[in-house]
């Protein structure tokens, strides 16, 4: 599972690879390296790079004017706003949950710990369509609580709250799964030392725990945000596909494509692709920051000088 690969895990893999490459006894043959690199690059070009190029090519196939009109259409702008709103609510909620769940699993021993770890992965194993149906069964007109919400004139399904709930569900594990192995690897020594020196629980979290997990936390948040903005299946079930009201960007792209308005569909899709590229750039920057060697303590520098 790609998300489970932590920043520190990736760094350790890189260090291990350098160690084997520097040793003639364990270094791979040149033809093996070229074969593996060739297969990797071929797959990347065929299944990642070319589709991305096709999206931008089709978006501009009828000129910049058509593409600009498509992305500034009132329905498209409403889809962009709803996508940002859903992500803006779901990501902070998952950030709080992710930190709490990671803290509980990495720091505490309690009955049901393994079950909690398994349940965190549930959204990865459940189809997004089923995730959407879950909310329909709970809050829909015929659902468990549907009548109560209808009587109180509260609309969950086929409205913004349902879209937010579906987005929260599918992005549930990203922050937690990034932090759990990181916090387990770091251990509790620093926090116990802070507690022994008199720091309160909140001081320990802000001054010890958070600095230690900040890059992993940012990495998980970026992945969570990327999934929130690109989610289709779960949101499609609970949205109702109402133009200008409950359509997110992926749903708006689908509607335009089904109407054979290909240039407009790819123009809006290019916005999602650009968001993905920005996400990749941020992810690479976080990985670079996390893998940078820590600066030498000032005391060591002064002693050397």
UniProtKB/TrEMBL annotation:
GO MF annotations in UniProt: ABC-type sulfate transporter activity
Single GO cellular component term: plasma membrane
CDD domains: TM_PBP2 (cd06261)
Domain ABC transmembrane type-1: 80-283
Xref: Gene3D superfamilies: MetI-like
Keywords: Cell inner membrane, Cell membrane, Membrane, Sulfate transport, Transmembrane, Transmembrane helix, Transport
Highest taxon, organism lineage: Bacteria
InterPro entries found in the cross-reference section: CysW_permease (IPR011866), MetI-like (IPR000515), MetI-like_sf (IPR035906), Sulph_transpt2 (IPR005667)
Signal peptide interval: none
Annotated compartments: Cell inner membrane
Function comment: Part of the ABC transporter complex CysAWTP (TC 3.A.1.6.1) involved in sulfate/thiosulfate import. Probably responsible for the translocation of the substrate across the membrane.
Subunit structure: The complex is composed of two ATP-binding proteins (CysA), two transmembrane proteins (CysT and CysW) and a solute-binding protein (CysP).
Annotated PANTHER family: SULFATE TRANSPORT SYSTEM PERMEASE PROTEIN, SULFATE TRANSPORT SYSTEM PERMEASE PROTEIN CYSW
Name of the protein in its database record: Sulfate transport system permease protein CysW
Organism annotation: Candidatus Thiodictyon syntrophicum
């Amino acid at each position: 599972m790609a998300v489970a690969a932590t920043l520190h895990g990736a760094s350790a893999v890189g260090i291990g690879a350098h160690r084997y490459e520097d040793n003639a006894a364990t270094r791979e043959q040149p033809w093996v390296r070229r074969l593996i690199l060739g297969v990797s690059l071929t797959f990347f070009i065929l299944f990642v790079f070319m589709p991305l190029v096709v999206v931008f090519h089709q978006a501009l196939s009828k000129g910049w004017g058509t593409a600009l009109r498509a992305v500034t259409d009132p329905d498209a702008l409403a889809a962009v706003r709803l996508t940002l709103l859903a992500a803006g609510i779901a990501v902070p909620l998952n950030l709080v949950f992710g930190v709490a769940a990671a803290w509980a699993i990495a720091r505490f021993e309690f009955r049901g710990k393994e079950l909690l770890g398994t349940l965190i992965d549930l959204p990865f194993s459940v189809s997004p369509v089923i995730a959407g149906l879950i909310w329909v069964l709970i809050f829909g007109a015929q659902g468990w609580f549907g009548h109560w919400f209808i009587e109180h004139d509260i609309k969950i399904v086929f409205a913004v709250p349902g879209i937010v709930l579906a987005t929260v569900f599918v992005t549930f594990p990203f922050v937690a799964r990034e932090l759990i192995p990181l916090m387990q690897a770091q251990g509790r020594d620093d926090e116990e030392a802070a507690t022994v020196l008199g720091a309160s629980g909140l001081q320990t979290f802000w001054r010890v725990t958070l600095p230690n997990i900040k890059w992993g936390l940012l990495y998980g948040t970026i992945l969570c945000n990327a999934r929130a903005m690109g989610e289709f299946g779960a949101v499609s079930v609970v949205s109702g596909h109402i133009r200008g009201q409950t359509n997110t960007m992926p749903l708006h792209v689908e509607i335009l494509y089904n109407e054979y308005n290909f240039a407009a569909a790819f123009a809006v899709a290019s916005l999602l692709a650009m968001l993905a590229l920005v996400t990749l750039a941020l992810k690479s920057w976080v990985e670079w920051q996390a893998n940078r060697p820590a600066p030498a303590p000032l005391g060591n520098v002064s002693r050397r000088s």
